[in-house]
Amino acid sequence: MTTKTDGRRRWTLAVGVVLAAVVLVAVAFQGAPRFSGPRMFLPPAPVRSQAPAPQQSGTPEPRGVPHEVRIDLSWLLVALVILAVVIGLALLWRLRRRAAPPLELPPLDTVGVAETSETHADQGPEPEPEQVRRGLERAAEVLAEPREPRDAIEAAWVGLEEGAADSGVRRLPAETPAEFAARVVARVAADRNAASRFLALYLRARFSSAPVTAADVAAARAAVEALRGSWSVGSAAGSRARDGGRG
């Protein structure tokens, strides 16, 4: 809530600065203000009859004309407009370049809560190890290819999602593909920490503007390798448990 409120305040401030700049531009185009001398209107004096003054020959002397006092403030208006525009652009640039807030990832152990609340007794079929193994192999192949780091991590996670989709586990209507893949991984005795690391790397590469480097690709590759090893162990243990139950 605080982040949304701060964002609204910043946008309101930026819009106010831009509106002020527009007003200053309009005032600047009206021209500089002009100040004339004081104008005093006095009642006319009584007319007195006088003898006509003798006419003077030659050109009459020019009478003094009051000069208008002009104060040129156009430079000040232009400076204020430029300053307002610069401040507005700086605020907009800062809002656009502001780093996205860090993503808060829920614990991987609680990924399957939605399914257990809807079908408490029916947990659904167990994931097929072969399909999930193929998804992990596809992710490892993508991470080994020469790609841009962000694209490599996203494509690797898509490979894991494809394996989860073919695993036989039902995807819930409210689940995203990433949540579904994470839940499939959580259904087995796999390395939960490795799955959480891989999921965090994918979410940052997919939804954050933070830079993704080769070190992130190496971390994703290590997480996938850990998942491949732990998945094989977990699937073997699950097979032994099922065989024991049948016996």
From TrEMBL:
Pfam families registered for this protein in UniProt: DUF4129
Q: Which residues cross the membrane?
A: 12-32, 73-93
Which keywords describe this protein according to UniProt?
Answer: Membrane, Transmembrane, Transmembrane helix
Q: Where is the Protein-glutamine gamma-glutamyltransferase-like C-terminal domain?
A: 156-225
Residues covered by region (Disordered): 46-65
Signal sequence extent = none
**Name by which UniProt lists this protein:** Protein-glutamine gamma-glutamyltransferase-like C-terminal domain-containing protein
> From which organism does this entry originate?
Leifsonia soli
